[in-house]
Amino acid sequence: MENSYQTKVVLLACGSFNPITNMHLRMFELARDYLEDTGKYRVVKGIISPVGDGYKKKGLIEASHRIEMARLATESSDWVIVDPWEGQQAEWVETAKVVRHHYEELLAAEGSNDEVDTVKAGKKRRHEDREGCTHFHCVRTAGPAAGTGHRCRQRGDSDRKWRDVPQLKFLCGADVLESFGVPNLWKSEDITEIVGHYGMVCITRAGNDAWKVVHQSDKLWRHRKNIHLVKEWVSNDISATHLRRALRRGQSVRYLLPDPVVHYIQEHSLYSAESEEKNADVILAPLQKYSKGCS
Ligand SMILES: Nc1ncnc2c1ncn2[C@@H]1O[C@H](COP(=O)(O)OP(=O)(O)OP(=O)(O)O)[C@@H](O)[C@H]1O
Ligand SMILES: NC(=O)c1ccc[n+]([C@@H]2O[C@H](COP(=O)(O)O)[C@@H](O)[C@H]2O)c1
Ligand SMILES: [Zn+2]
To answer: Hey, where are the domains in the chain?
Structure first.
């Protein structure tokens, strides 16, 4: 039931989706149920953003295939879409930048009309007439919007003009939360921006103790009110790694991912011993970038 005090939320999941699995889709359903059960939120859209080829993860097949599989997988959903923007970039894009990009899209949609409330809006993306927003500066100590007067829905600004812009929250599994602590993988200010400014919804995953991760990190603990930890009671450890292994061995992967995706994989003969060797001797883009000390 709609309630004017509820905050609209858009969920954004970034990852390899190599290939997309049923668990990736379940993450969205679990997160929506959790947020809506609080009575405070109404989840209006979910966005899947497959990472670009520049990420250089071992076994990562071409973004065009991963995007298409995600598109096929979301065809049956009336609220989750796939957005190809990140996957189409020539270079790897830091996740904080991807989140910013999508928030700007929400603001642009709000600037033109309120179509953001529908999945159609995501499919019919706007690239013109952007209403510039420097909201991400407000997590920094200096910058044009650091002072007062900057209006930003993410900060809960109740101004009428901003009331209808949904909040954007980063959706991930507990392994991604845990990866925040891996040296040279994430920039500290990016974590602050994602968690402190936007907020995240994190789904538990076998082998990862999300509560412990938050407890043991001073930064995450400080932002704990912005981190929604969702317990998956029917634990389901489907992983894309497991699927790729089964596919290499000619085993069935049916019912672990949507049928149209299974057909697409067969049709294009994706995932072989050879594809698993892609990027085998290349360093993951963020590690390459941050261990050089450049950011
Ligand atoms: N079984 C799962 N439970 C909870 N979260 C999951 C699960 N599988 C994937 N995720 C989450 O989905 C997002 C995208 O994950 P990713 O594409 O890396 O899938 P993956 O199954 O972990 O793949 P890989 O095995 O190649 O690492 C991440 O936030 C990840 O934590
Ligand atoms: N510093 C960063 O912004 C950073 C570091 C590592 C992974 N990531 C993102 O997290 C996701 C992780 O995906 P995988 O679990 O498939 O490796 C990807 O979308 C990747 O771009 C971001
Ligand atoms: Zn993963």
So the answer is: 7-291
Looking at ligand 1, which residue's alpha carbon is closest to its atom 10? 173
Mutate-to-test residue for ligand 2 from 21, 86, 179, highest number of ligand atoms within 8 A of CB: 179
- CA-wise closest residue to 166 among 126, 107, 122: 107
State the Cα–Cα distance between residues 264 and 235, nearest whole angstrom. Answer: 27
Pull the structure tokens for residue 210. 């999300």
The two structure tokens encoding residue 29: 């359903």
ipTM exceeds 0.90: yes
List pLDDT tens digits, range 117-147.
Answer: 455 444 444 333 333 333 433 332 223 333 3
Kindly give the interhelix angle for 63-74 and 259-267, rounded to the nearest 10 degrees: 150
The DSSP annotation for 128-159 comes to SS-----GGGGGSSSSTTSSTT---GGGT---
Instruction: Encode burial over 209-240: b for 16+ CB neighbours within 10 A, e otherwise.
Output: ebeebbeebeebeebeebbbbbebeeebebbb
Evaluate whether the domain defined by 7-291 bears CATH number 1.10.3720.10. Answer: no
C-alpha dihedral sign at 236, 240, 246, 250: positive
Please work out whether the CB of residue 15 comes within 6 Å of at least one atom of ligand 1: yes
Q: What is the whole-number distance in angstroms between the Cα of residue 93 and the centre of ligand 2? A: 9
Mutate which of 18, 24, 169 for ligand 1 pocket (most atoms within 8 A of beta carbon): 24
The atom of ligand 1 lying closest to the CA of 236 is 1
Residues 46, 13 contacting (CB under 8 angstroms): yes
* pLDDT 10s digits, 220-273: 999 999 999 999 988 888 999 999 999 999 999 999 999 999 999 999 999 999
